[in-house]
Amino acid sequence: MMLKQLKTLVIVAAAGFAAACTPMFRSDVSTFHSNFAPSGQTIALTPMNPDRRDSLEFRQYANAIGLQLGRYGFRQAGEAEPDLIAGFDITINDGREKIETYPSAGRSSFWYSRHYWGFWGPYDPFFDARFHDELRATTVYRVELRVELRKKDGTMLYEGRAETETRSNNLPKIVPLLAEALFQEFPGPNGQTRHVKLDLTDRNDLD
């Protein structure tokens, strides 16, 4: 019986360890819209900031946003007059120091140690004081993507915002992920903020 319990504990620990190691991209997504549903409209993507409308960098971001909108039937108008104007903006702060906790060297979820109740089992840091977490200071950045969809007369149809906190300031890598998170289940619940996770297993988005 004890051996069976031990095997169960090891399996649970291994599953938890694997889940913890799964690479994920996390974003807080807020959406607002007024009875809006995509119906194959053509769109023109343009930065909200006029100073960025000739930017090759922002043209790349426009393509990433357009790719996600294309999943819902939107088509980029090209040189033709569009049905809708899709304005977007990207901001990133200067970063801040964040204290994070890491397991100390030599600590492992698969180690075994003798617990106070008298049998050997998977190492549990809450019951073993020989190892201590290490505190490290890292720089994290807050990145935000905003997208608006308007009629040609300026009537607002949709507002969306996706934010993430990341240790990378590589915007060409981060913005496509924010666009993917923002347009999950487009147009999304009206007037709500939800937490969106993207599984990056077998992807190199943030390498």
Overview of the structural elements:
The protein has 207 residues and is α+β, with helices and mostly antiparallel strands. Helices cover 23% and strands 37% of the residues. It is built from three helices and ten strands. A hairpin with a 4-residue loop joins strand 8 and strand 9 (156-166). Helix 2 packs parallel to helix 3 (171-182). The longest helix has 20 residues, at 2-21.
Helix-strand category:
alpha+beta
Task: Report the strand count.
Answer: 10
What is the 3D shape?
Answer: elongated
Q: What's the number of helices? A: 3
Global mean pLDDT: 81
Strand content: 35-45%
**Mind summarizing the main beta sheet?**
8 strands, mixed
H/E topology pattern:
HEEHEEEEEEEHE
Helix amount: 10-25%
Any key phrases for this structure?
about 210 residues; eight-stranded mixed β-sheet
